[in-house]
Task: structure prediction
Amino acid sequence: MGKVNVCLKRTFYVVASLIGIITILMLAFTLFSHGYLLQEEEMDELHPYFLVMYIFSILTLVLVIIGLYGACKEKKWALILFGVGMIFSSVYMIVSEIQGRTLEPKVAGELKKHYLNMLPLANASESFLSELDKHQAIWDCCGVDQGYQDWGYNIPESCVCSGYNDSSNPCVVAPRNSSLYEHITGSAVVLVYSEPCLPFLVSTEIMAINIGLGIYLGILLLWVSSAALCIAMLCQLNRKVDTPTVVYSQEAKAGNYTVLSDAAENT
Result:
């Protein structure tokens, strides 16, 4: 049986350790999210997701421990088990990555439908209205789909234009029968943003999903690297080591040596 290269083994230690750390963080995040959503009573739709995350994290952590043991002791069975497990995990992650990329238009449509279901804003939850109010101030928009009309009478101050009317930040005159004119007298007008916030809300969610998929791709490359390093170590362990052939010699047994003369005789 051959020996594993020291640099290869150390590289495997680093990669496997990183996978272990990431897996522990994933498990901790899943536990935290599970506990938080359990208090919010929003578990029905997310229960399969948490189940998959628990199984994936625990199995990966067990595989990492087996793989590190196999690399340290140079045990083939442990490295084979680790390699097969990581290959299957990598295939699952590749399929998930491809599905995430191909389902992006569908996700955008579902997000749009989700936000439209919040209308009318008079019946929306306080948490959603608070978040929308913050987004309006950041993105210079108003309402969800129909601009300021989504707010009805109670148009918030975050819809008021803070700058001049321009092409990137169009403003319109707010209706006089709105709450914005309660403390205004005379012929003064109030300008509000005409652009709805729905495109910004959807694009922000899609950007967050793309960032998550990018991080997921980096983790996937780490998983694939660990499987490749494991296969390389197995190849080195299976490599035959050439040993010199021992040849029997009659002369060596008889002791065919030349006796040196005594130093005193040569003087």
In short: Helices lie at 6-40, 47-73, 76-102, 104-116, 126-139, 198-238, 250-254. The radius of gyration is 35 Å. The mean pLDDT is 83. The chain is about 60% helix and 0% strand.
